[in-house]
Backbone:
């Protein structure tokens, strides 16, 4: 794949055309901004941290039935994506009160929001991304009522998946911002999911693990991004393997001991009972003495076949 002309340059990402129809290259730059671009800096490796986390989460969501624009990574900071007709909406899902919702409404920071609150803003820097309601979105023809309902459904599904994933790593997913686009008639997740677009708190300490570290100068931004990127991608990637390994051994010991001792005792107790059955057979001798004589050996063999598993199977299983 060849990278061609620049198509779009945002605050922290650049989108390029390629020689493959319907696919673009998104470059995650080291630029970081806050407060509508009022605060700007360039921080080494920031682009690669965000790209790596975004790629990991896109793949995770795809595996769980969420369509995204992600195709593959070309290198640590360049991502190949499918072309989408982007919908100019910023969909914010909030699980805990923090940020603007605390400044603008009578919520106390840290309050759990159940069910999660979905807030939708109009993506327009000139207007400072004003909040929209459903009627305004439909009236502005940004999305149909049906599309809007689908966007909200997908957003809540993404939230449920990410909350579970982050919780396993000791992280609280406070809130996050996502964007969607159309691929034909399919609504797909686009843009990115990274420390720039999520608000993350350590479950034990409530330490900020996202761009708030930069916004409010809470510490070393890149040290935080590096630590969180490893925490999410390394630990989360290893988690499924541990679960699978735990399930297999758990089932075998339960099933084997439960069944085998029962069959062993049953075989031992039933053997004498079956031995008494041939005693009744001689009554049939006047009818067919030869047939009775031939059948007797067959039943003796059957008794031995029943006793075989009782002695060998438990030894192999254990």
Residues:
């Amino acid at each position: 794949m060849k990278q061609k002309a620049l198509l779009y340059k945002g605050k922290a990402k650049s989108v390029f055309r390629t020689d493959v129809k319907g696919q673009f290259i998104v470059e995650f730059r080291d630029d970081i901004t806050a407060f509508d671009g009022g605060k700007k800096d360039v921080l080494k490796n920031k682009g690669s941290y965000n790209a790596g986390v975004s790629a990991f989460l896109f793949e995770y969501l795809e595996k769980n039935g969420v369509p995204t624009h992600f195709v593959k990574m070309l290198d640590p900071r360049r991502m190949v994506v499918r072309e989408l007709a982007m919908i100019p909406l910023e969909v914010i899902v909030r699980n805990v009160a923090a940020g603007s919702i605390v400044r603008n409404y009578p919520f106390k920071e840290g309050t759990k929001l159940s069910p999660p609150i979905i807030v939708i803003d109009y993506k327009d820097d000139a207007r400072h991304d004003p909040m929209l309601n459903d009627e305004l979105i439909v009236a502005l023809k940004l999305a149909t009522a049906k599309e809007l309902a689908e966007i909200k459904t997908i957003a809540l599904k993404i939230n449920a998946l990410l909350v579970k994933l982050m919780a396993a790593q000791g992280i609280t997913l406070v809130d996050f911002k996502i964007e969607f686009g159309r691929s034909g008639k399919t609504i797909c997740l686009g843009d990115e999911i990274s420390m720039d677009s999520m608000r993350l708190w350590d479950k034990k300490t409530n330490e900020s693990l996202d761009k708030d570290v930069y916004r409010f100068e809470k510490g070393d931004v890149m040290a935080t991004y590096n630590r969180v990127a490893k925490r999410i991608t390394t630990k989360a990637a290893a988690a499924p393997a541990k679960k699978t390994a735990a399930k297999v051994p758990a089932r075998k010991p339960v099933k084997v001991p439960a069944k085998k001792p029962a069959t062993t005792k049953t075989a031992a107790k039933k053997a004498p009972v079956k031995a008494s059955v041939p005693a009744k057979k001689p009554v049939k001798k006047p009818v067919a003495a030869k047939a009775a004589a031939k059948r007797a050996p067959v039943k003796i063999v059957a008794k031995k076949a029943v006793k075989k598993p009782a002695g060998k199977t438990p030894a192999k299983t254990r």
Summary: The CA atoms of residues 74 and 80 lie 7 Å apart. The first strand starts at residue 3 and ends at 9. The chain has two domains: 3-219, 258-317. The chain has seven helices and 15 strands.
